[in-house]
Specification:
Length: 266
C-alpha cells in the first residue's frame, strides 16, 4: 500500500518521535518517516548510532535531533519528556524495547524488571503527553510496537510476552478512545525480524523478516487499521493460530520459543 506523502505530513507532521531509533525496526522507520518529509527526533541509548541515523535521515531534507537516553531510568525518561515539551510531535513510533528467552526462574530478575520499565512504563509515559497534545490538535498518530507473542501467554518468554500483551491492549483501547479526536493508534505485531533483538535475547531466528519491510508495512497501516501483523511469518502464525484455543496457542508458541533457544543446549 502506497502512502500519500502530502496527506501523511499533514496528518502526522511536522515532527516524529522515534524511540529505538538506533537499531532495527525503529531505525528503518526513522529513515522512512524522514523520507515522508517529517522531522525526526531519535531516541536510543547509543549517541553515536543515533548520530549516524540522524545523518541518514537528514539526506531527505528534514530536521533531525538525536538524544541518547536510557528509557529504563527515571532520568532518561524525564529528559525525553522535557525534550518533547516544546516540539510539535504529530507521530510517535514507540519501538524501543527488548526481550528475553528462557525459563523465567533462570533469567536475571533485574533484566526482567528493566524490560517492564522500557517496554511498558516508558512507552506509556511518552504516549501520555503526546496523546494529550494530539487530542488538543485534533490530529496525530501513535504506533506502538507489539508482537506476535502478545495474544497469549508464551512459555520460555513469559515476561516478554506479557509486556507485549500490555502494549497490544493499551493500543487497542487507545485506538477507539482517540478515534473521535482524529488521532490514529496502531499496534504493530510482527513475527521474527532480523535485528539486534535476537542477539540481545540470545535467540536463533529462522525466516525472519527484514526491518525495512516491517517498518514500511507498519507505516502504511497507520490510519487504516488498529492492529497490523506485518510480514509473512506474523500473518501465517497469527492467522493460523487465531482460531485455536488460547491454551493451545500458548503451548505451540512455547515450542517455537524452545526451538529458538535450542542452540544453547549443546
Ligand atoms: N525483532 C523481532 O523479532 C521483533 C518481533 C516482534 C516485535 N519486536 C519489537 O519491536 C521493537 C523493536 O525491536 P527491534 O527488533 O528493532 O530490536 P533492536 O534492533 O534490538 O532495537 C531495539 C531498539 O530499542 C532501543 N532500546 C533498547 N533498550 C533501550 C533503553 N533502555 N532505552 C532506550 N532505548 C532502548 C535500542 O537502542 P540502544 O541499544 O541504543 O539503546 C534499539 O534502538 C521492540 O519493541 C520489540 O519488542 C521485535
Amino acid at each position: 500500500m502506497k502512502i500519500d506523502k502530502a496527506k501523511f505530513l499533514r496528518k502526522y507532521g511536522p515532527w516524529a518521535l522515534v524511540t529505538g531509533a538506533s537499531d532495527g525496526i525503529g531505525a528503518a522507520a526513522a529513515d522512512q518517516i524522514a523520507e515522508l518529509g517529517l522531522n525526526v527526533l531519535l531516541v536510543g541509548r547509543h549517541q553515536e548510532r543515533l548520530e549516524k541515523r540522524a545523518k541518514a535521515c537528514a539526506v531527505h531534507g528534514v530536521d533531525t535531533r538525536a538524544i541518547a537516553a536510557d528509557l529504563g531510568t527515571p532520568d532518561g525518561l524525564r529528559n525525553i519528556i522535557a525534550a518533547i515539551e516544546n516540539v510539535e510531535v504529530g507521530l510517535y513510533f514507540g519501538s524501543a524495547g527488548f526481550g528475553s528467552a528462557g525459563a523465567f526462574c533462570d533469567l536475571p530478575i533485574d533484566e526482567e524488571l528493566a524490560m517492564i520499565d522500557v517496554n511498558c512504563r516508558a512507552l506509556t509515559a511518552l504516549a501520555y503527553p503526546l496523546a494529550q497534545q494530539m487530542r488538543t490538535r485534533g490530529r496525530g498518530g501513535l504506533i506502538l510496537m507489539s508482537s506476535i507473542v502478545a495474544f497469549q501467554g508464551v512459555p520460555h518468554s513469559a515476561n516478554y510476552a506479557a509486556t507485549k500483551a500490555y502494549v497490544q491492549t493499551l493500543a487497542e483501547g487507545l485506538a477507539l478512545e482517540l478515534e473521535p479526536d482524529g488521532v490514529d493508534v496502531l499496534a504493530s505485531a510482527p513475527g521474527p525480524v532480523e535485528t539486534g533483538f535476537a542477539r540481545r535475547a540470545d535467540m536463533a531466528m529462522s525466516g525472519a523478516a527484514v526491518p525495512a519491510t516491517i517498518a514500511r508495512k507498519t507505516l502504511a497501516a497507520l490510519g487504516r487499521h488498529r492492529t497490523v501483523r506485518p510480514g509473512t511469518q506474523s500473518k501465517l502464525l497469527g492467522y493460523g493460530l487465531a482460531t485455536l484455543p488460547r491454551a493451545l496457542r500458548s503451548r505451540i508458541l512455547g515450542q517455537v520459543m524452545r526451538g529458538m533457544t535450542k542452540h544453547r543446549d549443546g
